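Annotated sample (chain length 119).
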Amino acid sequence: MIQKTGFDFFFDESKCEECGGKCCIGDGYVFLEIDEIEKIASFLHLSLDEFGLKYLRKVGNRYALIEDSNRAECIFLDSNNRCSIYEFRPKNCKTFPFWDIFKINPQGAFRECIGVVKK
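Output written by the structure step:
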């Protein structure tokens, strides 16, 4: 169980296996910082240019992961609905469901994730 102050819920990580990666499916942006891009590219044995061409899109002046166009899900979600870069996943993913939007609207977190539990 993970708790963060300022939230009306806590997060039960054990539900991730049961859920099947729903937080990785659907529209939205997974933004990355340059250090995250470098770590993932290195893990995949790609140059920054190769990684950028294959996995990134520009959104304003930031970079985000592309989605699998056939399945509308994170490009790194494998066929077993597991993150294939889990150890190197971006901060955006690591901090779910403790995002500011869910501080304002916790109901959204409850709808999106079975691991989100009311305090």
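Annotation: Residues 31-68 form one domain.
Annotation: The first helix runs from residue 15 to 19.
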